[in-house]
Amino acid sequence: MKVKFITVLIVMVLATNACLAPASIAHSEKPQEVDASSETGAVSVEPEELQIEEGNSFETEDSAAGNESEAQEQDGVTPEESLPAAINPLSGLPVQNADNLLLPPALVSVTNFPPTARPQAGLSFSPIVFELFIGDGMTRYLAIFYGDYPHASFPKQGEDFTDELTQGLPDAEVGPIRSGRLPYEYIRKLFNGFIVMASAYSKVAAQMSDYINVFGDDQMDVNSALIPVDKLENIARANQPDLAEINLSGMAFNHQVPEGGKTAHSLWIFYSFLNQVFWRFNVEDGSYHRWQDNADGSTFIEQTDRLNGEPLTYENVIVLFADHDVESQYLIDINLLYVKKGKALLYRDGKMHEIYWTTKSEEYEKTTGRLRPIRFIDADGNPFPLKPGQTWIELVPGYTAYWETVDSEKFSQLVAGRSKGSGYWGLYFKLAD
Questions:
Q1: Does residue 1 form part of some domain?
Q2: Which domain holds residue 130?
Q3: Counting beta carbons within 10 angstroms of the beta carbon of residue 135, is it exposed (0 to 12), middle (13 to 18) or buried (19 or more)?
Q4: Number of domains comprising the chain
Q5: Which of 21, 164, 200, 216 is the most exposed place for a label (fewest CB within 10 A)?
């Protein structure tokens, strides 16, 4: 393996140098499909400058390879494989640079705690973001960057925005980046990409392949690890040949609002008292805006992207129910592979739909041995359309309770409130003992 340097320091390492993890947390490679639809840390930093450490067979020379997908029409629903080449298969929207669709997705581990990490950089450009529980009441994001890459811009202002102009644009970076988690490797395989993280616990790193380690430039600031967007793109271009042919087919998109569903003005998610989230539907832009308490259980702040100052808005918010395997307080695995049918809730266009998800092996998987992204389906197994745009996926245990509550920001009223037909939904996250 060759070691090369780009603008920031890049150190190449092999993921196989990591210690082997015990069998109890090893990721299964054997396709054992299951039906899940029934009821039921600290970051390492290095001083002086941003450092990028690469895992497995990653190089830093520019290269790219082709990617083709088949077209298909199904009953008015537009599966992404039927869309033109310039459409992002993960959002159903056109991209400005079609060549970027030839590059492997970058899956970046973005911190949500401490609150000083907010606002994060780049999330408003990610077609899909996964949010998962990491222990101590905290969550972390795995943001997928594919298609058009993030860029900095001035936030929309009134007539007087002299201060913003004099300060200049922020650097186009993504982060803050924090350590990897066990479910990341499942998601990486499903999306045929590479992981960007700030190292990982040895038992976690041993399960991963195709990853980059990014370290901050300030030992006293856990939020200092960010990766410049141009470096992220260069790494994707350099390693496209090493990550096999990309097939991101399977997701369906349609602007037409699906029939049925229940009114959904908002969704309140309780991860812990100091980690509560509201997704609030905005009629004007037709998307859900993210609000989060300031780690105080009471002060809810609309979340934004530091690259442009714009609110985090997602056309689709999905609650995905999946089995959680708790190995220890901070070692939580989530079963996402070879699932025939799992439950999910889709929030789009101000409605909540009870749907399903699948990662079962179909013809492509059986003939190539490779995987494709999570597909969302109805009760009969037909593709269920998401709204073209961005999607935020909340990963929760299969037994997680959800209900219609009251319109409030007070914890006691939200958790105890029951108001059928209100359109104000609540979800209480809790891991089994």
A1: no
A2: 9-29+41-66+89-428
A3: middle
A4: 1
A5: 164
